[in-house]
């Protein structure tokens, strides 16, 4: 979940509520769903919240939500925008990153706190909506350092989003003193090493030029020339990415934050060349796009989801307190509301999201719980009942019931049981082709177990300091590859049991298996077999009602020694469904 | 009449006319004295013998006493030397007498104090006199010592014996001696004939069927001794907890779901309206499978409806996500990160056929998360998952259902904190008051499934759902601190064996 650092003094300043002490602020924030997690080293609140309201990734956004909460603001607010003076020309940009957006904000009087908040907002948006810059990356520049003379348009100023040869183009990146090519940045610059992978496969790297030359290498790093400082008053914001909607809305969130700091937003024309890749070839987009989206919500649906009766004035009031505008209208389904959603709300993608906002404004916890008046008959799944009955029988026979992980590694599942991991498949119990995990997190868990005796042997190995006899059993999942299954995996429940005691013998194991078979009215036969995990001449197939379903025997001394055991173990394993 | 062997022997050895000491009886009956004593008391309880007790005093010479008997008392030596030195006629120098007596060390003091006490003479200012009339040759203490040494203690003077004990020359100990004598009933019993009954260790089936048990006596056990340890089998603590949860849910009208652990991302994520570029869908959070790599078959019309929900949204005002969506990713196989994949399969009608409201379903099954292993997080854990399908469900119904469920486990004062999940709206994190500590703790996540989830599945009523980890419930209820102690191959058998059963 996102965490945002917020200076409580800034919050008091931006909300205009100097009288709120820290505890009051924390409690108000909690009611908004922002949880106080602790203090930062700089005495700021660390606030954690669910990743829907990405417009709250800055102190300005949190302050705006609080002002609605305090009813200082109501309804949709749209900052004024001046018409475009600058444009972004888009041509020959990389196919893999075809989209760009932008905005200008002028007249800022930034202090350290405001600049830090802007940097944090940028980072947090990168981490969330921007998908670690892959989907959208933000560049903020000092406008006065850009030279916008355009060769194509004498009247306006422009910058150009295009591509560059990674080995030829040069600029001085942030945190560097010398000119570097994009390739050098990717190889030797710290930020380049972090984000270079995003464009490493591109023939030509994304690049933004002004009249002076290359000044940004998105999504990796900006040039030093246009670096923003507390003295910067006018900012040029550009964002590149793989989805226009996403970067446009990231841009809206940044513009709203800067407008809250007293900045004047100015539009930028994004002009895609006729042969530019992407959906907007030949089109000019006016950005930022502060148009409101409208959704129709029926009164019935609001009442049925919230489970309360409301009149339309209440609905409109709650909507406005959530920062939305609602007007009554008629729909096919009766009375409804046209609800306007402000341009910074990226989470509202369906009328249900508006009902949630209304519920939050109303206060969900003020609702009285009711038990739904619908009657159904419950019951256990057949398989789960069978599993329970078999487990009860094993416990009755004195076995300690175990619960082990379904994930295991090849060594435990095969090698340490004397099975050949390179020759899987076939009918030998435990020898199935295993389900394997991609890029396993730990060497201990690389496959799904094909049988459960290896898990039991591991428990015996880890408990040699505990008293004997150790009679252990487990009923659990085992799986193997199987083309005849739709998922490609045959999953079954397996019954495994082991007797570890100084005089454990085949007969002890068979006596218990026989008791189990009798309990489920199954006919047990044990024709001799060979199995690498068991002593030759002391292993048998488990045949229940004529079907071979498992193996029983005395565990081979090699396997015992491998598991540091100093006493014999007799064991059996078979498919649970054989007891059906 | 049958009596245990020991009792018969004692009866036969006892006499009607005189008391016989139990030691003698035991020797005659070939019993250990303790066994004979026990038998005598048992017979006395039945009125067949009387048992008399008398306390005997036994004297024994100490090492010092033994030496004096063989030699002489120190005061006798001193008297002899004094006589030789002429002390009978008048005082003589003591040093001279002592030197002549051959006494040394502690014996000098012993001799001097007893010399005066027995009036053998007087000792004054370093001079010693001897009493002409004294008769150390018939000293009563020496006579008593000799009597004890000769086993004639009855001849000894009792005052002298006391004196010798005080001087540490004799040890006296008391012994209780029991004697038995046949009573009239005992004589009668003997005359009527009495047989020895056998004593047995083990009651046998033959004894019961033959009636022989009536004539045997059972050897006595030490019933207070510790018995050997027995370990009983026990259902695993998490299984017990799972069963309690299942019982509760079945009682509330829920039916159990079942389905694959390894499943397509389609059922695990796409049906749940999780965008394909959602951070939780990377392999850092879930286990993608190398083999098998993708599912064999997905219902094509359902795939199209799910794709459309992601890309275009559902309903006239639905927007969908601005994220890429491909069927290839949906076909990819994972270990399920939640059992909501089962809910999706059931709701789609592809698992057990079309469902009509109202329905209630649950599962308590394993899920897999690529997380760091620590005391509270496992790579595999059990998820409790439940949902209710009905017309016009409200958040109040959701609150009522979960309040009821958690109260069964002692978790009360449920609070609903508005939350965000991609697949439910409204969504709530559930907080409750811990039954033991009184803390407010998170106990689950819940919500009403979005239209983008239900419409593609073909469900046109409401479905509310919730999830919770079983391990979390176990830890809340039983205060385990490290879940690895109970779940997995690192488990401690001792802990499993000793854990209290769940009621």
From TrEMBL, chain A:
Domain B5: 290-369
Chain coiled-coil ranges: none
Localization (cell): Cytoplasm
Record PANTHER family: PHENYLALANINE--TRNA LIGASE BETA SUBUNIT (PTHR10947:SF0), PHENYLALANYL-TRNA SYNTHETASE BETA CHAIN AND LEUCINE-RICH REPEAT-CONTAINING PROTEIN 47 (PTHR10947)
Family: Belongs to the phenylalanyl-tRNA synthetase beta subunit family. Type 2 subfamily.
Subunit text: Tetramer of two alpha and two beta subunits.
Name listed for the protein in its UniProt record: Phenylalanine--tRNA ligase beta subunit
Biological source species: Haloarcula japonica (strain ATCC 49778 / DSM 6131 / JCM 7785 / NBRC 101032 / NCIMB 13157 / TR-1)
Taxonomic lineage: Archaea, Methanobacteriati, Methanobacteriota, Stenosarchaea group, Halobacteria
Name of the gene encoding the protein in the UniProt record: pheT
From TrEMBL, chain B:
EC number: 6.1.1.20
Gene Ontology BP annotations: phenylalanyl-tRNA aminoacylation
Chain coiled-coil ranges: none
Keyword vocabulary terms for this entry: Aminoacyl-tRNA synthetase, ATP-binding, Cytoplasm, Ligase, Magnesium, Metal-binding, Nucleotide-binding, Protein biosynthesis
Keyword Chaperone: no
Gene Ontology molecular functions: ATP binding; metal ion binding; phenylalanine-tRNA ligase activity; tRNA binding
Name of the top EC class for this enzyme: ligase
One GO cellular component, as annotated: cytoplasm
Domain Aminoacyl-transfer RNA synthetases class-II family profile, first and last residues per copy: 245-498
Cellular localisation: Cytoplasm
Family to which this protein belongs: Belongs to the class-II aminoacyl-tRNA synthetase family. Phe-tRNA synthetase alpha subunit type 2 subfamily.
NCBIfam families: pheS, PRK04172.1
Protein name per the record: phenylalanine--tRNA ligase
Gene source species: Haloarcula japonica (strain ATCC 49778 / DSM 6131 / JCM 7785 / NBRC 101032 / NCIMB 13157 / TR-1)
Native organism taxonomy: Archaea, Methanobacteriati, Methanobacteriota, Stenosarchaea group, Halobacteria
């Amino acid at each position: 979940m996102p965490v945002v650092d917020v200076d409580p003094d800034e919050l008091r300043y931006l909300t205009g509520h100097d009288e709120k002490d820290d505890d009051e602020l924390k409690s108000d924030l909690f009611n908004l769903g922002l949880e106080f997690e602790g203090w930062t080293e700089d005495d700021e609140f660390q606030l954690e919240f669910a990743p829907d309201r990405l417009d709250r990734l800055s102190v300005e956004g949190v302050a705006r939500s609080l002002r609605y909460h305090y009813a200082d603001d109501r309804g949709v607010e749209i900052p004024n925008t001046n018409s475009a003076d600058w444009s972004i020309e888009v041509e020959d940009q990389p196919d893999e990153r075809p989209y760009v957006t932008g905005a200008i904000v002028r007249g800022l009087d930034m202090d350290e706190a405001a600049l830090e908040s802007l940097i944090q907002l940028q980072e947090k948006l990168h981490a969330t909506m921007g998908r670690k810059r892959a989907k959208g990356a933000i560049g903020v520049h000092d406008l006065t350092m850009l030279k916008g003379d355009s060769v194509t348009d004498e009247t306006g100023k422009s910058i150009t989003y295009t591509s560059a040869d990674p080995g030829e183009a040069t600029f001085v990146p942030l945190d560097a003193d010398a000119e570097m090519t994009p390739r050098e940045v990717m190889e030797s610059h710290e930020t380049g090493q972090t984000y270079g992978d995003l464009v490493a496969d591109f023939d030509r790297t994304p690049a933004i030029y002004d009249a002076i030359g290359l000044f940004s290498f998105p999504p990796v790093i900006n040039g030093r020339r246009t670096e923003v400082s507390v003295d910067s008053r006018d900012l040029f914001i550009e964002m590149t990415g793989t989805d226009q909607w996403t970067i446009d809305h990231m841009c809206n969130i940044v513009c709203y934050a800067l407008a809250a700091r007293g900045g004047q937003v100015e539009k930028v024309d994004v002009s895609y060349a006729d042969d530019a890749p992407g959906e907007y070839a030949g089109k000019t987009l006016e950005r930022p796009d502060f148009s409101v989206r409208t959704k129709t919500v029926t009164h019935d649906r609001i009442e049925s989801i919230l489970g309360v009766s409301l009149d339309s004035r209440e609905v409109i009031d709650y909507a406005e307190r959530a920062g939305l505008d609602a007007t009554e209208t008629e729909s096919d389904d009766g009375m409804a509301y046209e609800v306007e959603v402000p341009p910074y709300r990226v989470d509202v993608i369906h009328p249900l999201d508006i009902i949630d906002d209304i519920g939050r404004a109303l206060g969900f916890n003020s609702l009285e719980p009711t038990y739904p008046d619908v009657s159904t008959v419950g019951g256990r799944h057949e398989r789960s009942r069978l599993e329970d009955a078999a487990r009860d029988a094993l416990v009755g026979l004195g076995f300690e019931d175990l619960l082990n992980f379904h994930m295991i590694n090849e060594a435990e599942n095969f090698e340490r049981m004397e099975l050949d991991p390179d020759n899987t498949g076939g009918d030998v119990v435990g020898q199935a082709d295993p389900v394997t995990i991609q890029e396993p997190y730990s060497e201990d868990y690389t496959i799904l177990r094909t049988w459960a005796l290896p898990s039991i042997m591991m428990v015996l190995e880890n408990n040699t300091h505990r008293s004997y006899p150790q009679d252990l059993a487990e009923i659990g999942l085992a799986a193997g590859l199987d083309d005849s299954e739709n998922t490609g995996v045959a999953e079954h429940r397996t019954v495994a049991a082991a007797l570890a005691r100084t005089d454990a013998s085949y007969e002890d194991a068979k006596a218990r298996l026989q008791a189990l078979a009798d309990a489920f009215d199954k006919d047990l036969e044990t024709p001799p077999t060979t199995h690498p995990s068991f002593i030759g001449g002391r292993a048998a197939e488990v045949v229940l009602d004529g079907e071979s379903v498992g193996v029983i025997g005395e565990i081979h001394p090699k396997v015992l020694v491998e598991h540091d055991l100093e006493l014999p173990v007799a064991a059996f394993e078979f498919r649970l469904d054989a007891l059906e | 009449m049958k009596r245990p062997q020991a009792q018969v022997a004692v009866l036969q050895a006892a006499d009607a006319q005189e008391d016989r000491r139990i030691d003698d009886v035991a020797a005659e009956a070939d019993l250990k004295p303790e066994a004979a004593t026990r038998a005598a008391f048992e017979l006395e309880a039945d009125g067949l013998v009387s048992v008399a007790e008398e306390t005997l005093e036994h004297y024994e010479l100490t090492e010092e006493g033994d030496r004096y008997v063989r030699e002489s008392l120190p005061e006798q030596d001193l008297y002899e030397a004094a006589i030789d030195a002429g002390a009978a006629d008048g005082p003589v120098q003591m040093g001279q007498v002592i030197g002549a007596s051959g006494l040394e060390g502690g014996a000098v003091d012993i001799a001097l104090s007893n010399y005066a006490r027995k009036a053998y003479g007087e000792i004054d200012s370093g001079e010693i006199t001897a009493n002409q009339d004294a008769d150390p040759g018939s000293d009563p203490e020496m006579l008593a010592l000799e009597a004890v040494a000769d086993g004639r203690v009855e001849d000894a003077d009792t005052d002298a014996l006391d004196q010798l004990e005080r001087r540490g020359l004799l040890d006296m100990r008391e012994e209780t001696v029991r004697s038995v004598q046949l009573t009239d009933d005992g004589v009668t019993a003997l005359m009527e004939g009495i047989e020895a009954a056998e004593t047995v260790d083990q009651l046998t089936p033959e004894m019961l069927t033959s009636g022989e048990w009536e004539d045997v006596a059972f050897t006595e056990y030490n019933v207070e001794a510790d018995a050997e340890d027995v370990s009983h089998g026990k259902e695993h603590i998490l299984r017990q907890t799972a069963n309690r949860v299942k019982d509760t849910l079945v009682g509330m009208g829920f039916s159990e779901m079942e389905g694959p652990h390894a499943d397509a991302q389609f059922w695990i994520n796409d049906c749940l309206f999780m965008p394909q570029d959602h951070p939780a869908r990377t392999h850092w959070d879930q286990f993608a499978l190398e083999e098998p790599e993708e599912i064999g078959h997905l219902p094509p019309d359902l795939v199209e409806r799910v794709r459309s929900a992601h890309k275009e949204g559902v309903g006239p005002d639905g927007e969908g996500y601005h994220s890429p969506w491909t069927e290839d990713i949906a076909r990819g196989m994972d270990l399920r990160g939640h059992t909501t994949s089962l809910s999706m399969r059931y709701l789609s009608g592809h698992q057990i056929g079309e469902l009509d409201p109202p329905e209630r379903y649950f599962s308590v099954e394993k899920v897999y998360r690529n997380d760091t292993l620590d005391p509270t997080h496992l790579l595999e854990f059990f998820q409790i998952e439940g949902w209710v399908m009905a017309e016009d469900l409200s958040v109040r119904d959701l609150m009522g259902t979960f309040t009821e469920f958690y109260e069964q486990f002692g978790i009360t004062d449920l609070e609903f904190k508005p939350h965000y999940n991609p697949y439910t709206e409204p969504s709530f994190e559930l907080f409750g008051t811990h039954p033991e500590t009184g803390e407010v703790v998170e106990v689950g996540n819940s919500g009403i499934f979005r239209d983008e989830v239900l419409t593609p599945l073909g469900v046109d009523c409401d479905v509310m759902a919730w999830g919770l980890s079983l391990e979390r419930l176990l830890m809340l209820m039983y205060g385990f601190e490290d879940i690895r102690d109970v779940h997995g191959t690192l488990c401690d058998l001792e802990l499993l064996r000793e854990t209290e059963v769940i009621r």
